């Protein structure tokens, strides 16, 4: 018996019905998994905004303490430096372009410092999400 005749007799493989059933099962599994994956991605993005806000806080705190540690610095000179050099005006809005690792679309507003150059309040906004820090408490 030659090879062609043997192949014709051995009709092993999947039928069209079996293939359709497998495709339907895969479709059902994807329909179940995709919404969960999308929710997981959304939660991760929300967490990233909180991480960025805390990173901005640490950067601002570091800049303020660094300036306060200079010879002859007072809290008023530190606040003036923040407004003049870091913010660029008389407002308390910080351009995030000066903060390392923070998206340029983010803004930091309402920076308040204690008498020892500790950041006591700030508002971080990235996209439609706003994070507020007041007296060491973070709120969304």
UniProtKB/TrEMBL annotation:
<dbReference type="InterPro" id="IPR012902">
    <property type="entry name" value="N_methyl_site"/>
</dbReference>
<dbReference type="GO" id="GO:0016020">
    <property type="term" value="C:membrane"/>
</dbReference>
<protein>
    <recommendedName>
        <fullName>Prepilin-type N-terminal cleavage/methylation domain-containing protein</fullName>
    </recommendedName>
</protein>
<dbReference type="Pfam" id="PF07963">
    <property type="entry name" value="N_methyl"/>
</dbReference>
<feature type="transmembrane region" description="Helical">
    <location>
        <begin position="20"/>
        <end position="41"/>
    </location>
</feature>
<keyword id="KW-0472">Membrane</keyword>
<keyword id="KW-0812">Transmembrane</keyword>
<keyword id="KW-0488">Methylation</keyword>
<dbReference type="InterPro" id="IPR045584">
    <property type="entry name" value="Pilin-like"/>
</dbReference>
<keyword id="KW-1133">Transmembrane helix</keyword>
């Amino acid at each position: 018996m030659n090879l062609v005749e043997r192949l014709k007799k051995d009709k092993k493989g999947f039928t069209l019905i079996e293939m359709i059933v497998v495709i339907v099962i895969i479709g059902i599994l994807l329909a179940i998994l995709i919404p969960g994956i999308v929710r997981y991605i959304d939660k991760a993005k929300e967490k990233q905004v909180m991480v960025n806000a805390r990173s901005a806080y640490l950067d601002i705190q570091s800049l303020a303490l660094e300036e306060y540690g200079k010879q002859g610095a007072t809290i008023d000179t530190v606040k003036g430096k923040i407004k003049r050099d870091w913010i660029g005006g008389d407002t308390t809005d910080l351009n995030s372009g000066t903060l390392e690792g923070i998206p340029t679309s983010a803004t930091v507003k309402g920076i308040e410092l204690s008498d020892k150059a500790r950041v006591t309040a700030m508002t971080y906004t990235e996209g439609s999400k706003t994070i507020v820090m007041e007296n060491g408490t973070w709120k969304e």
